[in-house]
Amino acid sequence: MKYNFDKIINRKGTDCIKWDCNKERFGDDHLLPMWIADMDFQTPKFFLDAIKKKIDGGVLGYGCRPARWGNAVTKWFKEEYGWEIRCSQIGFVPGIVVGICHALRCFTKKGDRVLIQPPVYYPFKNQILAAGCKVVNNPLKLVTKKDKSCNTIVYDFEIDWEDFEKKIKGCKCFILCNPHNPGGRVWSRSELKKMASICLKYKVLVLSDEIHCDLSFSKHIPFATVNKQQGQNTITFHAPSKTFNCAGLCASEWVAENLDIHTKFSEYLSAGEFASGHTLSFMPAPELYTNKGREWLKQAKKYIWDNIIFTEKYLKENFTKGNQQLVSMVQPHASFLIFLNFRALEISQQELVDIILKKAHLALNDGITFGPGGEGFMRLNVGCPRSVLEKALKSIKKALKNYL
Ligand SMILES: Cc1ncc(COP(=O)(O)O)c(C=O)c1O
């Protein structure tokens, strides 16, 4: 079956954050929203049909976790990543931020230090602070690389290893974003191994957020699989939410191979009833971690990748002045989020935000919210029909006409 990702679905008035909360979030209800990380594509139709069937059962009472949920999750990890885990090593959480929030409360005490790698998904910092811990930043380095295929310069993020080792000493936890958001960096095996050896050396528990991994365009390696010891020192968070555009169902999973860690976290979650899903929560995994889901995902990834290439080409063709590209991007290796680089314009962050909001009439994520290193950037969500993406890029071009 061929899925149609060009189809425009009117989400306005459906109580969704992306389209219905722009007034309170950005002060303007008439922006084209390309910020929060869900996609404007239809959630797989076969899955919507399964939900309808369930609702037609007529009673929305308490749900429970069926065995097929655990079987689907473990089978997916094995088939997609060669990661063999048992059902007894996984757990449910109603969202990854929620999961990280609880893991921090369960495994740290007030005043403990937790390392992150900004610019990074901003709820990490918020959750560390909310748990009473201290944020330790290991900022990523923005590097330029030569893209051999088109002989141009592309941006990417890399780890500052000296700083990583210096800063992680004395930390209790490290929240790894694998793949990274924003920037879409898929960490290589050697990078993950190096991180693991340093975390093991200093006994730092790793919370690995792998929510974007199924949308990787290059090989994703679950952090817990780099070696057996690291498998014992990691809680991995994963979900069908980004992969299959069903974030509103609040259904995520976590994996801890270490029995003590698993028991401690499970008991903590059960005590507060934090791991109870709603009546539809256990549906995504068994329905979507399947061959049908795989086929939808294959087509969605191809469409997203073409959107990324479209954006890259548009920026090169429309934002170049002399031999300088005034708006460029970090080339994502995963997912549908593009970190746009406006630094060559040499304007303040406030000016940049104003141009995007008031002249381009777009709702994008301000790069600065991702922490140090986000200055001069805005995050663009390209999980949308190409016609919408083209409209957004044209709006940016029009808004920047005085600079081009
Ligand atoms: C890296 C990362 N983790 C977690 C989330 C949110 O996950 P959830 O909705 O399950 O809390 C996002 C959403 O953008 C994300 O990019």
Any low-confidence stretches, pLDDT <50, length ≥5? none
Strand order of the largest sheet: 2-10-9-8-7-3-4
Counted by DSSP, the helix tally is: 14
Percentage of residues in strands: 15-25%
Q: From the coordinates shown, what is the CATH architecture of the largest domain?
A: 3-Layer(aba) Sandwich
How many β strands by DSSP? 17
Write down the CATH class of the largest domain: Alpha Beta
Mean pLDDT: 96
Your description of this structure?
- The chain is of the alpha/beta class and 404 residues long.
- The protein folds into two domains: 17-44 and 291-399, Alpha-Beta Complex (Aspartate Aminotransferase, domain 1), CATH 3.90.1150; 67-288, Aspartate Aminotransferase, domain 2, CATH 3.40.640.10.
- It has helices spanning 17-20, 22-26, 45-56, 67-81, 96-107, 123-130, 161-168, 189-201, 228-231, 259-271, 284-288, 291-318, 349-359, 386-399; strands spanning 32-33, 90-93, 113-116, 134-137, 141-147, 152-158, 173-177, 205-209, 234-238, 252-255, 320-321, 324-325, 328-329, 337-341, 362-363, 365-366, 377-381.
- Helix 5 (96-107) packs across helix 10 (259-271).
- The mean pLDDT is 96.
- The structure holds pyridoxal-5'-phosphate (PLP).
- Pyridoxal-5'-phosphate is lined by residues 37, 95-97, 121, 177, 181, 209, 211, 239, 241, 247, 252.
